[in-house]
Amino acid sequence: MTSATSATSAIEIDLVSDTSTRPSRDMLARMMAAETGDEQRGEDPTVLRLCEQIAGLLGMEDALFLPSGTMCNQIAFLVHCRPGDEIIAAENAHVFGSEGAGASALAGAQFHTIATPSGIFDAAAVAAHIRAPRMRRPRSRVISVEQTTNRGGGAIWPVEELAAIVALAREHSLAAHMDGARLFNAVVAAKTPAKIFTAGFDSAWVDLSKGLGCPVGGVLAGSKDFIAEAWHWKHRLGGAMRQSGILAGAGLYALDHNVERLAEDHANARLFADIVRGLDGVTVSPENVVTNILFLELDERLEAAAIATALKEHGVRIGVEGPRRMRVVTHLDVTRDGVERAGRAFAETVQTMLG
Ligand SMILES: *Cc1c(COP(=O)(O)O)cnc(C)c1O
Q1: What's the predicted TM-score (pTM) here?
Q2: pLDDT category of residue 21 using cuts at 50, 70 and 90
Q3: Ligand 1, atom nearest to 179 Cα
């Protein structure tokens, strides 16, 4: 066994990301039992069922199964944009900073970003970023929002704000796109049906491989015309699969079993925040943890990398986001007890370091 492997296997409580989950036995059983066919020919019944369910939940006409959330975003931009177009999004959006500049590399679009620590912005901020139509200007084309916000600490977009943004998009003939990687976290935390959040959006998607606990996949939804165009890009990018019903089976299992339980992840994130809040040298952000993500801002006496190394000794892993910034993400493979142990280990480590 290499040292890298043994270091990984010693981690019992992994709070780095909600992608750290493994498919459960029951999920695997559902995958193995899935009816399959050739997805590219529209003959995989399990994929068709999953797409139909997600389209229904999001109030959209149609949906498309894709290998990842990143591909959902990129295909949406490829359909909405022509080269030289501009996408308005938060400065800390996943589409801007965490997708290998895909929108510019693939769709030829550039970003016009809005500075907002929570990842949420209002219609007035969008209006200030819409370009007047002039020959020498980039053409504003898409408004992209992230529900919930990842770098913004799991914040939830209020329905009214989304509606105002959709109205503005209509007024200026822009497309409204929702990166719904964690849309179901918002659904459960705000007790609001998904289709209420996505109302009026031209495209929206959900990730199956985040809090829902699937190994692979995202589902992109929109109008029939939008999805027909998205199919072309799915083929071009090599995202068209064959008997992918085994993967869609995991998604159907997750819709049945792993949505309502997201409330436990939210309670666990609040528990972690409650344990470490008030510690000397540490600020919990956001102040009110609403879903499954929180950040720990450290003062000048502490170093994120050193804390992460010390936590490994406790079998705990949390994310290093910067020299003095750490991220904690709860998910279905960490228990309440595990989160409590991780919180205590973090508190002890900080107290020891501050002597
Ligand atoms: C994870 C994530 C993505 C990308 O999803 P993948 O399935 O990892 O490709 C996009 N947007 C947000 C907000 C995310 O958190």
Answers
A1: 0.96
A2: very high
A3: 11
